[in-house]
Amino acid sequence: MDRAKDGFVKDRSTSAAVRALLALFAVVLLAFAPARAQTTHIAPRLVAESVAPQPGGATTVALAMTPEKGWHGYWSNGGDAGFGMQVEWNAPPGVTVGAFRYPVPEALTLFGLMNHVYEHPYALLADVRVDKSVAPGTDLTLTGIANWLACTDKICVPEKAVISVAMKAGSGAIAPGAQQQFDAWRAKLPQPLDRAGAWERRGAMVRFGIPLPEGTTLDVPHLFLETQGVIDYPAPQSFSRNGDWIIVEARAKGDAAGPIQGLLKLSDGRGLSVHFEPEAVRLAGEPIAAASRSIDMALFWTALGGAIIGGLILNLMPCVFPILSLKALSLARSGGDARDAKIEAVAYTAGAVLTALLLGGALLALRAAGEQVGWAFQLQHPVSVFVLMLLAVAITLNLAGVYELPSFGGGQTLASQGGAAGGFWTGALAAFVATPCSGPLLGAALGATLVLPAWAALPIFGGLGLGLALPFLAVGFVPALRNRLPRPGPWMAKFRKWMAWPMALTALGLGWLLWRQTGSVTHGWLLLFIMLLYIAEMLRRWRLGRISRNATLMLVVFAIAFFGFKAWDQFAMPVAPTAEAAAETFSPDALAKARATGKPVFVYFTADWCLSCKANEAGAINRAAVQEAFDKAGVATLVGDWTNGDPAITRALAEHGRNSVPLYLWYAPGKAEAEILPQILTPRLLTDKAGAI
């Protein structure tokens, strides 16, 4: 027994000696590495998000590293035998460079040693601040000498290179391509955990407590420690859950004390940066290592139920009502025939569910690619809004009786017609238009897709489409409901024309949204395009004998007078949008400054295509009584406009478990966390919040 123990101690001593020798060997090689330019196995490239940073502001630079096949670089704490990036900056006067932020690494064990590495292209991000005293136009070219370690599974080579990026003090503008690239790099950074964890040493073990809500997916988790001298890196780590805490236990190594910085790797390459304070840690709970690829089924079923009920509630939202009018006409036209009603109900459900699944799948794919997007991303692009507006105009004219829609594939007709194809396209259109409206229960349900794996998140999106289709599915399969529908008759023609009005309002709303997204010049060209289409349709109807020459001339003159002069006014208007007077624009810096005043802060995230957002703003936020209460209490209001998409807003939504708008946050003085307010606001709710201060 003693001999076995002695052998174990000897093995550990030998392993420790090998690690020390390897680390010393790497440092010696680095010290004697030539300073001249050389071919590197990991190619560095310094990139600036804005090449014209504004004096008094900041920009971000990225040191993009591209390893050759079989080579890898290192995290800030390289592990047993590596080290991170070291840069000696040569910054111009008035320019300061912050510390690098590293993406989530991988754990690589070779010869009994664990390294924290990157085996694929990665980027380190650092903030660059420019003093306000720097004059515009000043050359701010940033250079530095970078040193890093490049390794394979057999050899390690210290590498060195001169890195540089040309910048000049300017407006702070960011090119669209640069913003997309930096957003993709930021998506790979660990997200900061809003609460501190705890750590303690008990004998030969070190225990960590991480506050993490139940349901968060852990796919082969691993705890990386930036602070050295705490744990034995290659030793196994055990994970368990005790309520809302993850308990991690690992073998101790070293004599570190005080606060510790760490990174908890989650599923799909995501991670959380955690600050640990030395204090007592909860007891270990249920082991989660064996179920690391499973999910919290309670969270899944709750989110799925919320999505179905939320989709059902969407049928009452104003953005869905014009589409429901199409379905009402189709069901009335069927005359209560059971077979036709069932076919159309199933087709309608299939269209709604499939569209919701496609939108959800696209959202998950874009997030996996590093894009900072959220629910309703399709309405953040003017092309999508333009196509949807043309479709709304076409349906409006069809309902008004101007023309019949042409056939669509195999002689089947579009959304306003009956049959399986008509039901399918109506359901698809309803889901496409309705899903941007985030009603009760829906925001939390969609927010759960942020922490669930893709295979579990997709059914939640499908549940939204199912909830949206439930009323018509019930009518199709429940005879008692179907028998209550009115019988076909002459009233249908009049009802059809009346239903053209809500669809026309939808088209106008989409046109207004397009103007808000593209500016006045683009909107002017759009009006000219609509005018030409209108004139062409009038001329076609005159040639077919459906309208007299005088009436045609009158309508053409009307189109030129109305649309033409309106387009001219749009061309003459300034393109720059006007800012909101009652609120400041949301940004993380603006929020930090507002909270530093010690006053209450109200933050609301909105979008021009979100009708429930606009209803809350008109009915509650912008009411005179609410604004007076806010002024009296000194409430600072910040608004995040998500109309055209904004990565900063997307990240803020994700931090609060949301990927859709509206979201309303109330920061009370002295409290660290925000209170999430209901998605349906009332003036009384807001005035009570302000009066309680």
From TrEMBL:
<feature type="transmembrane region" description="Helical">
    <location>
        <begin position="424"/>
        <end position="448"/>
    </location>
</feature>
<keyword id="KW-1133">Transmembrane helix</keyword>
<dbReference type="GO" id="GO:0045454">
    <property type="term" value="P:cell redox homeostasis"/>
</dbReference>
<dbReference type="InterPro" id="IPR013766">
    <property type="entry name" value="Thioredoxin_domain"/>
</dbReference>
<feature type="transmembrane region" description="Helical">
    <location>
        <begin position="385"/>
        <end position="403"/>
    </location>
</feature>
<dbReference type="InterPro" id="IPR036249">
    <property type="entry name" value="Thioredoxin-like_sf"/>
</dbReference>
<dbReference type="Pfam" id="PF13899">
    <property type="entry name" value="Thioredoxin_7"/>
</dbReference>
<feature type="transmembrane region" description="Helical">
    <location>
        <begin position="521"/>
        <end position="539"/>
    </location>
</feature>
<feature type="transmembrane region" description="Helical">
    <location>
        <begin position="298"/>
        <end position="324"/>
    </location>
</feature>
<dbReference type="Pfam" id="PF11412">
    <property type="entry name" value="DsbD_N"/>
</dbReference>
<protein>
    <submittedName>
        <fullName>Thiol:disulfide interchange protein</fullName>
    </submittedName>
</protein>
<dbReference type="GO" id="GO:0015035">
    <property type="term" value="F:protein-disulfide reductase activity"/>
</dbReference>
<feature type="transmembrane region" description="Helical">
    <location>
        <begin position="454"/>
        <end position="478"/>
    </location>
</feature>
<keyword id="KW-0812">Transmembrane</keyword>
<feature type="domain" description="Thioredoxin">
    <location>
        <begin position="572"/>
        <end position="693"/>
    </location>
</feature>
<feature type="transmembrane region" description="Helical">
    <location>
        <begin position="498"/>
        <end position="515"/>
    </location>
</feature>
<dbReference type="InterPro" id="IPR028250">
    <property type="entry name" value="DsbDN"/>
</dbReference>
<dbReference type="InterPro" id="IPR035671">
    <property type="entry name" value="DsbD_gamma"/>
</dbReference>
<keyword id="KW-0472">Membrane</keyword>
<feature type="transmembrane region" description="Helical">
    <location>
        <begin position="345"/>
        <end position="365"/>
    </location>
</feature>
<feature type="transmembrane region" description="Helical">
    <location>
        <begin position="551"/>
        <end position="568"/>
    </location>
</feature>
